[in-house]
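sorry to bug you again but im stuck and you know this stuff better than me. below you get a single protein, a line of residues and a line of whole numbers that encode the local backbone shape. mainly i need to know what kind of three dimensional shape the backbone takes. anything you notice is useful, everything is just below:

***
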Amino acid sequence: MEIEILVFECGGRHFGVDAQCVRGVLRAVALAPVPQAPDVVMGLVNLRGRILTVLDTQQLLGLGASSLRHSDHLIVVDAGACEMALHVDQAIDLLSIEQDNASEYGHQGGEHLAGSAPLTTPPPLTKPPHSEAPPQLTDTAPRLVRTVAKTHLGVVQVLAPSQWFRGDAMKEILAIATSTTATQLTPALNL
């Protein structure tokens, strides 16, 4: 059995997302800021009348914050509970992966894959006020990555947006993404 993935570059690494949840890919545009939103929320965009929350995918994956450049892409995904856009450096290719070349994230022959541990949970969304210590992650944090696949580009970690909003770890982002007042916060940035 094959799965199709959209491969993208983020923070100098290759990632993918199941093509079935991709609704579109567009060039990055100016975003409307969301006051007091978690750091991982870059802003909002009005896509043909639909307000989408744009996430900093690089920061979500624990690779540091990124800035929006005109050459970047926004990948619109169906995250189960809502649609949102993932800010990435570049969408690269649509690939079909044989099930034999993919394994459940984090395990292969009973061992963790090299470099996989940091991506099993999202980084903290915000630091507690007046605290130098980073917040602690909870065991209920969603799995960001579903599958690891071998491709001609190397190892690609395939994200699972439909799994992100199970539990409480990202409910603040979900509240922003599904807010009916988001339309009032967003100027006419129609694409």
About this structure: The longest strand covers residues 2-10.
